[in-house]
Specification:
two-stranded antiparallel sheet; alpha+beta; 370 residues; five-stranded antiparallel β-sheet; disordered C terminus; 7 strands; disordered N terminus; globular; Helicase, Ruva Protein, domain 3
Protein backbone atom coordinates (compact mmCIF):
# COMPACT_ATOMS: atom_id res chain seq x y z
CA UNK A 1 0.00 0.00 0.00
CA UNK A 2 2.73 5.26 -2.08
CA UNK A 3 2.16 8.69 -0.82
CA UNK A 4 4.65 11.55 -0.69
CA UNK A 5 4.53 14.32 1.93
CA UNK A 6 1.17 15.19 0.43
CA UNK A 7 0.27 11.91 -1.28
CA UNK A 8 1.43 9.37 -3.80
CA UNK A 9 -1.46 7.82 -5.66
CA UNK A 10 -2.67 4.51 -4.31
CA UNK A 11 -1.38 2.76 -1.19
CA UNK A 12 -0.19 -0.21 -3.18
CA UNK A 13 2.88 -1.05 -1.12
CA UNK A 14 3.50 -0.33 2.52
CA UNK A 15 6.09 1.58 4.45
CA UNK A 16 9.27 3.44 3.72
CA UNK A 17 11.26 0.40 4.82
CA UNK A 18 9.09 -1.57 2.42
CA UNK A 19 9.16 0.92 -0.47
CA UNK A 20 11.04 0.04 -3.65
CA UNK A 21 14.23 1.98 -4.30
CA UNK A 22 14.32 4.58 -7.08
CA UNK A 23 14.62 3.13 -10.58
CA UNK A 24 18.11 2.33 -11.78
CA UNK A 25 19.38 3.14 -15.24
CA UNK A 26 17.69 0.90 -17.79
CA UNK A 27 19.91 -1.84 -19.21
CA UNK A 28 19.39 -4.63 -21.71
CA UNK A 29 17.46 -7.55 -20.25
CA UNK A 30 17.64 -11.20 -21.23
CA UNK A 31 14.65 -13.21 -22.39
CA UNK A 32 12.38 -14.04 -19.44
CA UNK A 33 12.86 -17.81 -19.78
CA UNK A 34 16.64 -17.47 -19.87
CA UNK A 35 16.62 -15.12 -16.89
CA UNK A 36 14.33 -17.47 -14.96
CA UNK A 37 16.63 -20.47 -15.49
CA UNK A 38 19.50 -18.60 -13.89
CA UNK A 39 17.28 -17.34 -11.08
CA UNK A 40 16.25 -20.89 -10.20
CA UNK A 41 19.89 -21.94 -9.98
CA UNK A 42 20.69 -18.92 -7.80
CA UNK A 43 17.76 -19.66 -5.48
CA UNK A 44 18.87 -23.26 -4.97
CA UNK A 45 22.41 -22.06 -4.33
CA UNK A 46 21.00 -19.80 -1.61
CA UNK A 47 19.54 -22.81 0.15
CA UNK A 48 15.94 -22.84 -1.08
CA UNK A 49 14.76 -26.43 -1.56
CA UNK A 50 14.66 -27.40 -5.26
CA UNK A 51 11.06 -28.60 -5.01
CA UNK A 52 9.97 -25.20 -3.65
CA UNK A 53 11.86 -23.40 -6.42
CA UNK A 54 10.26 -25.65 -9.01
CA UNK A 55 6.74 -25.25 -7.61
CA UNK A 56 7.02 -21.47 -7.33
CA UNK A 57 8.78 -20.65 -10.61
CA UNK A 58 8.24 -23.41 -13.17
CA UNK A 59 4.77 -22.22 -14.11
CA UNK A 60 5.93 -18.70 -14.96
CA UNK A 61 6.09 -18.40 -18.74
CA UNK A 62 6.07 -14.65 -19.27
CA UNK A 63 6.26 -11.50 -17.14
CA UNK A 64 2.93 -10.02 -16.10
CA UNK A 65 2.12 -7.12 -18.46
CA UNK A 66 -0.30 -5.57 -15.96
CA UNK A 67 2.45 -5.37 -13.33
CA UNK A 68 4.86 -3.67 -15.74
CA UNK A 69 2.11 -1.24 -16.73
CA UNK A 70 1.41 -0.36 -13.10
CA UNK A 71 5.09 0.15 -12.43
CA UNK A 72 5.43 2.45 -15.44
CA UNK A 73 2.22 4.35 -14.79
CA UNK A 74 2.76 5.48 -11.19
CA UNK A 75 1.58 9.05 -11.25
CA UNK A 76 1.84 11.36 -8.28
CA UNK A 77 -1.53 12.76 -7.32
CA UNK A 78 -1.16 15.82 -5.13
CA UNK A 79 -3.65 15.98 -2.27
CA UNK A 80 -3.42 18.13 0.80
CA UNK A 81 -3.14 16.24 4.08
CA UNK A 82 -6.68 17.34 4.94
CA UNK A 83 -8.05 16.06 1.64
CA UNK A 84 -6.44 12.68 2.12
CA UNK A 85 -7.69 12.35 5.69
CA UNK A 86 -11.22 13.25 4.62
CA UNK A 87 -11.16 10.75 1.76
CA UNK A 88 -10.02 7.94 4.03
CA UNK A 89 -11.98 8.62 7.22
CA UNK A 90 -15.53 8.38 5.92
CA UNK A 91 -18.76 7.53 7.70
CA UNK A 92 -18.91 4.19 5.88
CA UNK A 93 -15.35 3.25 6.78
CA UNK A 94 -15.93 4.21 10.41
CA UNK A 95 -19.16 2.21 10.61
CA UNK A 96 -17.63 -0.88 9.04
CA UNK A 97 -14.38 -0.45 10.94
CA UNK A 98 -16.12 -0.25 14.31
CA UNK A 99 -17.99 -3.45 13.56
CA UNK A 100 -14.90 -5.35 12.43
CA UNK A 101 -12.70 -4.02 15.22
CA UNK A 102 -15.36 -5.00 17.77
CA UNK A 103 -15.28 -8.55 16.42
CA UNK A 104 -11.50 -8.66 16.97
CA UNK A 105 -11.31 -6.44 20.06
CA UNK A 106 -10.18 -9.14 22.50
CA UNK A 107 -7.32 -10.18 20.22
CA UNK A 108 -6.47 -6.59 19.37
CA UNK A 109 -6.26 -5.56 23.02
CA UNK A 110 -4.18 -8.60 23.94
CA UNK A 111 -1.62 -7.82 21.23
CA UNK A 112 -1.60 -4.13 22.17
CA UNK A 113 -0.86 -5.03 25.80
CA UNK A 114 1.87 -7.51 24.84
CA UNK A 115 3.75 -5.11 22.55
CA UNK A 116 2.97 -1.76 24.09
CA UNK A 117 1.50 -0.39 20.86
CA UNK A 118 -1.98 1.13 21.29
CA UNK A 119 -4.93 -0.76 19.84
CA UNK A 120 -5.92 2.44 18.03
CA UNK A 121 -2.65 2.51 16.09
CA UNK A 122 -2.93 -1.17 15.15
CA UNK A 123 -6.53 -0.63 14.06
CA UNK A 124 -5.59 2.43 12.01
CA UNK A 125 -2.91 0.58 10.05
CA UNK A 126 -5.16 -2.46 9.64
CA UNK A 127 -7.92 -0.20 8.33
CA UNK A 128 -5.77 1.68 5.83
CA UNK A 129 -3.73 -1.25 4.54
CA UNK A 130 -6.49 -3.81 4.10
CA UNK A 131 -9.80 -2.05 4.81
CA UNK A 132 -9.95 -3.89 8.14
CA UNK A 133 -8.95 -7.24 6.70
CA UNK A 134 -11.32 -7.24 3.75
CA UNK A 135 -8.84 -6.70 0.92
CA UNK A 136 -5.11 -7.25 0.74
CA UNK A 137 -4.47 -7.75 -2.97
CA UNK A 138 -5.03 -10.52 -5.48
CA UNK A 139 -1.80 -10.54 -7.49
CA UNK A 140 0.29 -13.72 -7.23
CA UNK A 141 3.28 -12.46 -5.25
CA UNK A 142 5.98 -14.65 -6.80
CA UNK A 143 4.91 -13.88 -10.36
CA UNK A 144 4.65 -10.14 -9.64
CA UNK A 145 8.08 -10.04 -8.01
CA UNK A 146 9.62 -12.14 -10.79
CA UNK A 147 8.25 -9.68 -13.32
CA UNK A 148 9.75 -6.70 -11.51
CA UNK A 149 13.03 -8.50 -10.79
CA UNK A 150 13.42 -9.31 -14.49
CA UNK A 151 12.67 -5.72 -15.50
CA UNK A 152 15.91 -3.70 -15.22
CA UNK A 153 14.36 -0.58 -13.70
CA UNK A 154 14.58 -1.81 -10.09
CA UNK A 155 15.90 -5.30 -10.63
CA UNK A 156 18.26 -5.46 -7.65
CA UNK A 157 15.60 -4.50 -5.10
CA UNK A 158 12.94 -6.86 -6.43
CA UNK A 159 15.38 -9.73 -6.95
CA UNK A 160 16.13 -9.72 -3.22
CA UNK A 161 12.43 -9.49 -2.41
CA UNK A 162 11.79 -12.47 -4.69
CA UNK A 163 14.39 -14.55 -2.88
CA UNK A 164 12.79 -13.49 0.42
CA UNK A 165 9.39 -14.65 -0.88
CA UNK A 166 10.90 -18.03 -1.82
CA UNK A 167 12.37 -18.28 1.67
CA UNK A 168 8.89 -17.76 3.14
CA UNK A 169 7.54 -20.55 0.95
CA UNK A 170 10.47 -22.76 1.89
CA UNK A 171 9.60 -22.33 5.55
CA UNK A 172 5.97 -23.32 4.96
CA UNK A 173 4.20 -20.21 6.29
CA UNK A 174 2.01 -19.98 3.18
CA UNK A 175 1.52 -21.86 -0.08
CA UNK A 176 2.51 -20.36 -3.40
CA UNK A 177 -1.17 -20.33 -4.42
CA UNK A 178 -2.17 -18.41 -1.29
CA UNK A 179 0.75 -15.96 -1.40
CA UNK A 180 -1.00 -12.97 -2.92
CA UNK A 181 -0.88 -9.23 -2.49
CA UNK A 182 -0.30 -6.00 -4.36
CA UNK A 183 1.16 -5.62 -7.85
CA UNK A 184 4.48 -4.60 -6.26
CA UNK A 185 4.75 -7.64 -4.00
CA UNK A 186 3.38 -6.27 -0.71
CA UNK A 187 1.67 -9.12 1.08
CA UNK A 188 -1.20 -9.79 3.42
CA UNK A 189 -3.24 -7.49 5.61
CA UNK A 190 -0.23 -5.47 6.86
CA UNK A 191 1.08 -5.23 3.26
CA UNK A 192 4.60 -6.33 4.18
CA UNK A 193 7.22 -6.75 1.53
CA UNK A 194 8.77 -10.24 1.86
CA UNK A 195 11.96 -8.93 3.49
CA UNK A 196 9.90 -7.13 6.13
CA UNK A 197 7.88 -10.29 6.66
CA UNK A 198 11.05 -12.29 7.37
CA UNK A 199 12.20 -9.70 9.89
CA UNK A 200 8.97 -8.69 11.63
CA UNK A 201 6.14 -11.17 11.04
CA UNK A 202 5.27 -13.16 14.18
CA UNK A 203 3.24 -16.23 15.08
CA UNK A 204 0.95 -15.04 17.86
CA UNK A 205 -1.59 -17.86 17.85
CA UNK A 206 1.06 -20.58 18.11
CA UNK A 207 0.18 -22.63 15.02
CA UNK A 208 3.78 -22.50 13.72
CA UNK A 209 2.81 -20.20 10.83
CA UNK A 210 3.19 -16.44 10.59
CA UNK A 211 -0.10 -15.91 8.80
CA UNK A 212 -0.48 -12.24 7.90
CA UNK A 213 -3.08 -13.13 5.28
CA UNK A 214 -5.94 -14.49 7.35
CA UNK A 215 -5.08 -14.80 11.08
CA UNK A 216 -5.94 -11.55 12.93
CA UNK A 217 -3.64 -12.30 15.89
CA UNK A 218 -0.65 -12.71 13.57
CA UNK A 219 -1.68 -9.62 11.58
CA UNK A 220 -1.88 -7.39 14.67
CA UNK A 221 1.23 -8.89 16.22
CA UNK A 222 3.27 -8.40 13.06
CA UNK A 223 2.22 -4.75 12.73
CA UNK A 224 3.05 -4.17 16.40
CA UNK A 225 6.39 -5.94 16.08
CA UNK A 226 7.28 -3.77 13.07
CA UNK A 227 6.51 -0.59 14.98
CA UNK A 228 8.40 -1.76 18.07
CA UNK A 229 11.32 -2.68 15.85
CA UNK A 230 11.31 0.88 14.51
CA UNK A 231 11.36 2.61 17.85
CA UNK A 232 7.80 2.73 19.20
CA UNK A 233 7.99 3.42 22.94
CA UNK A 234 5.21 1.85 25.06
CA UNK A 235 2.96 4.13 27.11
CA UNK A 236 3.82 7.20 25.04
CA UNK A 237 1.35 8.93 22.68
CA UNK A 238 1.90 9.67 19.00
CA UNK A 239 0.91 13.34 19.20
CA UNK A 240 -2.03 15.72 19.25
CA UNK A 241 -3.83 18.16 17.02
CA UNK A 242 -3.25 21.77 18.02
CA UNK A 243 -4.26 25.32 17.24
CA UNK A 244 -1.63 27.69 15.89
CA UNK A 245 -2.64 31.33 15.37
CA UNK A 246 -1.64 32.84 12.05
CA UNK A 247 1.01 35.14 13.50
CA UNK A 248 2.50 32.33 15.57
CA UNK A 249 2.59 30.03 12.54
CA UNK A 250 4.38 32.68 10.51
CA UNK A 251 6.99 33.04 13.24
CA UNK A 252 7.45 29.30 13.52
CA UNK A 253 7.88 28.73 9.79
CA UNK A 254 10.45 31.51 9.52
CA UNK A 255 12.50 30.78 12.64
CA UNK A 256 12.22 27.09 13.59
CA UNK A 257 14.52 24.75 11.68
CA UNK A 258 13.38 21.69 9.78
CA UNK A 259 14.48 18.19 10.62
CA UNK A 260 16.86 16.21 8.49
CA UNK A 261 15.93 12.76 7.24
CA UNK A 262 16.07 10.22 4.47
CA UNK A 263 12.54 10.85 3.18
CA UNK A 264 10.72 14.05 2.33
CA UNK A 265 8.18 13.74 5.14
CA UNK A 266 10.97 13.61 7.71
CA UNK A 267 12.32 16.85 6.29
CA UNK A 268 8.88 18.44 6.10
CA UNK A 269 8.46 18.88 9.85
CA UNK A 270 10.20 21.03 12.41
CA UNK A 271 12.95 19.98 14.75
CA UNK A 272 11.73 18.80 18.13
CA UNK A 273 11.17 21.39 20.83
CA UNK A 274 9.94 21.03 24.43
CA UNK A 275 6.20 21.47 24.87
CA UNK A 276 6.93 24.48 27.07
CA UNK A 277 8.67 26.15 24.14
CA UNK A 278 5.76 25.46 21.80
CA UNK A 279 3.54 27.06 24.42
CA UNK A 280 5.79 30.14 24.43
CA UNK A 281 5.61 30.28 20.62
CA UNK A 282 1.81 30.51 20.82
CA UNK A 283 0.71 26.94 20.13
CA UNK A 284 -2.43 25.89 22.02
CA UNK A 285 -4.82 22.96 22.22
CA UNK A 286 -7.69 22.92 19.76
CA UNK A 287 -9.96 24.65 22.27
CA UNK A 288 -7.37 27.33 23.00
CA UNK A 289 -6.19 25.98 26.33
CA UNK A 290 -2.50 25.94 27.29
CA UNK A 291 -0.43 22.94 26.31
CA UNK A 292 0.60 20.43 28.95
CA UNK A 293 3.46 21.79 31.06
CA UNK A 294 5.98 19.20 29.91
CA UNK A 295 9.59 18.99 28.84
CA UNK A 296 8.67 16.25 26.37
CA UNK A 297 9.79 17.24 22.88
CA UNK A 298 7.59 17.36 19.79
CA UNK A 299 7.80 18.41 16.15
CA UNK A 300 5.21 20.50 14.35
CA UNK A 301 3.58 18.96 11.26
CA UNK A 302 1.46 21.38 9.25
CA UNK A 303 -1.16 20.69 6.65
CA UNK A 304 -3.01 23.41 4.76
CA UNK A 305 -5.30 24.16 7.68
CA UNK A 306 -4.61 21.58 10.40
CA UNK A 307 -1.56 21.48 12.69
CA UNK A 308 -0.17 18.64 14.78
CA UNK A 309 2.50 18.31 17.43
CA UNK A 310 4.01 14.84 17.09
CA UNK A 311 6.22 12.97 19.54
CA UNK A 312 9.00 10.46 18.95
CA UNK A 313 6.55 7.59 18.39
CA UNK A 314 5.27 9.33 15.28
CA UNK A 315 8.58 8.48 13.61
CA UNK A 316 7.68 4.78 13.81
CA UNK A 317 4.56 5.50 11.75
CA UNK A 318 6.70 7.27 9.15
CA UNK A 319 8.91 4.18 9.04
CA UNK A 320 5.81 2.21 8.04
CA UNK A 321 4.99 4.67 5.28
CA UNK A 322 6.94 7.90 5.12
CA UNK A 323 4.12 10.32 4.37
CA UNK A 324 2.39 12.65 6.80
CA UNK A 325 -0.97 12.06 5.13
CA UNK A 326 -0.61 8.34 5.83
CA UNK A 327 0.75 8.59 9.38
CA UNK A 328 -1.80 11.14 10.54
CA UNK A 329 -4.67 9.22 8.95
CA UNK A 330 -3.55 6.04 10.73
CA UNK A 331 -3.57 7.84 14.08
CA UNK A 332 -6.87 9.64 13.57
CA UNK A 333 -8.68 6.70 11.95
CA UNK A 334 -7.67 4.39 14.77
CA UNK A 335 -8.83 6.82 17.42
CA UNK A 336 -12.17 7.34 15.66
CA UNK A 337 -12.78 3.63 15.09
CA UNK A 338 -12.21 2.79 18.75
CA UNK A 339 -14.41 5.66 19.90
CA UNK A 340 -18.11 4.75 20.37
CA UNK A 341 -20.08 6.07 17.41
CA UNK A 342 -22.36 8.16 19.59
CA UNK A 343 -19.51 9.87 21.43
CA UNK A 344 -18.44 13.35 20.33
CA UNK A 345 -14.97 13.80 18.91
CA UNK A 346 -12.79 14.95 21.82
CA UNK A 347 -9.95 17.40 21.74
CA UNK A 348 -6.83 15.40 20.97
CA UNK A 349 -4.33 16.50 23.58
CA UNK A 350 -2.77 13.38 25.06
CA UNK A 351 0.16 14.36 27.26
CA UNK A 352 3.27 12.22 27.48
CA UNK A 353 3.65 10.12 30.59
CA UNK A 354 6.94 9.36 32.35
CA UNK A 355 8.87 6.81 30.33
CA UNK A 356 8.86 3.23 31.60
CA UNK A 357 11.43 0.50 30.86
CA UNK A 358 10.65 -1.03 27.49
CA UNK A 359 9.76 -4.73 27.42
CA UNK A 360 11.36 -6.67 24.63
CA UNK A 361 9.17 -7.11 21.55
CA UNK A 362 7.30 -10.38 21.49
CA UNK A 363 9.45 -12.95 19.72
CA UNK A 364 8.56 -14.91 16.66
CA UNK A 365 7.93 -18.59 17.27
CA UNK A 366 11.23 -20.19 18.44
CA UNK A 367 13.16 -21.92 15.71
CA UNK A 368 11.83 -19.77 12.89
CA UNK A 369 14.27 -18.60 10.29
CA UNK A 370 14.23 -14.80 10.33
Amino acid sequence: MRITVLLVALLAVSVSAQTPAPPAAVTTRPAFAEWLRQLKADAIERGIRPEIVDEALSGLKEPLPAVLERDRAQVETVLAIEQYINRQITATRLRDGRRLVTEQRTTLDAVADAYGVPASILAGIWGLESNFGRFSGTRPTVHALATLAWDPRRASFFREELFAALQILDHGDISVQEMRGSWAGAMGQPQFMPSSYLQYAVDVDGDNRRDIWSTPADVFGSIANYLRGHGWTPDQPWGLEVSVPKAAFSTITSTIARREGSCKAMRDMTVRLPMTEWQTLGVRTLNGAPLADSSEEASLVAGSTRRFLVYANYDALLEYNCAHAYALTVALLGEDVLRPSAAPTPIRQAAPQPKKPQPKPGPANPGRRQ
